[in-house]
UniProtKB/TrEMBL annotation:
This is GMP synthase [glutamine-hydrolyzing]. The keyword Glycosyltransferase does not apply. The gene is guaA. It comes from the Bacteria. Its EC number is 6.3.5.2. One of its GO terms (biological process) is asparagine biosynthetic process.
């Protein structure tokens, strides 16, 4: 595989993604951890970009031992400057950053740009520039800010490029990475989702032997894909447990059961815990308290279920690669509190398995589709672990849950009917505790105000309110006030994040 040493650039995950898209497995590795890698398997090393200057006091370093291994190396941006600095060349610090598109001119034939144009646009984002190359290196491309936009060693497979091939704005970026992995590292392109399934099948069978695995299925994308994968690999040695807390969207609990019990023929256990959750949530208005109660109650129910599985040895969980990278742990053997079921029992004697912990979200979606999961599950929008409880402001009653479920269902239907479901990132309704006066027929009404929330976003960290056309909003509002008993006014939230959050609680 290819190791991408993580020097901190915001594009690092993208380098890994691009290489995997080329059919070669790649992993992001902290520079300090390089020598813990399975070195005989490492066929190439990419030194990533990063925010530092090589002259910064705490600038991350390059261990020269790495160069002794004779593994092909590609330094990108900071990675190139680090190579130059470490090997005796000169990097000049520069207060001005070069940021954006610039024209690259190839000045010498080289394996990275073989067969490509002699001049094309690339994406630059750097402060310092390479002034003098280290001994043994030659320059193979220039741009208006540097004579050394690309370099290569005369006899060894060591390359450096100042621009970012992983960014789409770099015209031949993918081809350059392709040349590196295929021609220079001589790697076969055999990484794919079907190959992943094959490898996981061997791995998990070998690990589990005749043991039994359980998992908590929430109906979300990650836990659904884990369930589908383990159903495929382990058949009867696997039991997914679905705790129905009554706070899912309309028909979702039923969909989960139909998909996994009927279509996937798993031993799915559904625990109807609606009454327990309602009882615990009765009279509670504080959002953080709601979250805590739901998290704790979930753990209790799940622990009770585990007791019925005396022979279970393993617990599967849908941790993704981004969770692993973000939590900064070297191995993913800890149960994370951010998991959407609110954290699982801490002192369980079960061994954790996380079959998705090397995959990115869209790879997980691809895996789900290949395992036969329906689009409706695989492309599900994000949904908070505490479910509809945090979309009902104030205390929760079964009737308010009905209002949110019915209005949310209408919203989903109309968003889909109007072809907006792909472009809007997340959309849902929120029930306020406000009541306003209205009129219906000849009668005065006094009912709840319902909010429509719909946002566009990439990752949920920032978001803009979605610009749903007025006609669509009109149709939605009409249907909601006519079809959902208990509301007489619908408002549209036009706040972006920041300053608002996506959810209201
Ligand atoms: P906010 O409201 O913070 O939401 O802008 C960002 C994203 O996170 C989801 N969200 C949650 N997910 N448990 C979850 O699993 C929670 O308590 C929770 N609160 C918010 C939200 O739906 C959005 O996608």
């Amino acid at each position: 595989y290819i190791v991408v040493l993580d020097y901190g650039s915001q594009y690092n995950q993208l380098i890994v993604r691009r290489i995997r898209d080329l059919g070669v497995y790649a992993e992001l590795v902290h520079p300090d951890d390089f020598f813990s890698c399975d070195l005989p398997q490492v066929k190439g090393v990419i030194l990533s970009g990063g925010p530092n200057s090589v002259y910064d006091e705490n600038a991350p370093k390059l261990e020269t031992k790495l160069l002794d291994l004779k593994i092909p190396i590609l330094g990108i941006c900071y990675g190139m400057q680090l190579l130059v600095h470490t090997l005796g060349g000169v990097v000049e610090s520069n207060d001005l950053r070069e940021y954006g598109n610039t024209e690259l001119n190839i000045t010498k034939d080289n394996p990275l740009t073989k067969g490509l144009a002699f001049s094309f646009n690339v994406w630059m984002s750097h402060g310092d520039v390479v002034k003098t190359l280290p001994k043994g290196f030659i320059s193979v491309a220039s741009s208006k800010t540097t004579d050394h936009a690309m370099m290569m060693h005369e006899t060894q497979p060591i390359y450096g490029i100042q621009f970012h091939p992983e960014v789409r704005n770099t015209v031949h970026g993918i081809e350059i990475l392709d040349h590196f992995v295929k021609d220079i590292c001589k790697m076969d392109k055999n990484w794919s989702i079907p190959a992943f399934i094959e490898q996981k099948t061997l791995e998990i069978r070998e690990l589990v032997k005749d043991g039994h695995v359980i998992c908590a299925l929430s109906g979300g994308v990650d836990s659904s894909v884990v369930t589908a994968l383990l159903a495929h690999i382990l058949k009867d040695q696997f039991t997914p447990i679905f705790v129905d807390h009554g706070l899912l969207r309309k028909d979702e609990a039923l969909d989960v059961q139909n998909t996994f019990k009927r279509d996937f023929e798993t031993n799915l256990i559904t625990v109807d815990a609606k009454d327990r959750f309602f009882a615990k949530l009765k009279g509670i208005s504080d959002p953080e308290q709601k979250r805590k109660i739901i998290g704790n109650e979930f753990i209790k129910v799940f622990e009770e279920q585990i007791k019925n599985f005396k022979d279970a040895k393993y617990l599967a969980q849908g941790t993704l690669y981004t969770d692993v990278i973000e939590s900064g742990t070297k191995t993913a053997q800890t149960i994370k509190s951010h998991h959407n079921v609110g954290g699982l029992p801490k002192n369980m004697k079960l061994i954790l398995i996380e079959p998705l912990n090397t995959l990115f979200k869209d790879e997980v979606r691809d895996l789900g589709i290949r395992l036969g999961l329906p689009e409706s599950i695989v492309n599900r929008q994000p949904f908070p672990g505490p479910g509809l409880a945090i979309r009902i402001l104030g205390d929760i009653t079964p009737d308010k849950i009905r209002i949110v479920q019915e209005s949310d269902f209408i919203l989903r239907e109309e968003i889909k009917n109007h072809g907006l479901d792909k472009s809007i990132w997340q959309y849902f309704t929120v029930l306020t505790p406000l009541k306003t006066v209205g009129v219906m027929g000849d009668n005065r009404t006094y009912d709840y105000v319902l909010v429509i929330r719909a946002v566009t976003s990439i990752d949920g960290m920032t978001a803009d309110f979605a610009q749903i056309p007025y006609e669509t909003l009109q149709k939605i509002s009409n249907r909601m006030t006519n079809e959902v008993k208990g509301i007489n006014r619908v408002v549209y939230d036009i706040t972006s994040k920041p300053p608002g959050t996506i959810e209201w609680e």
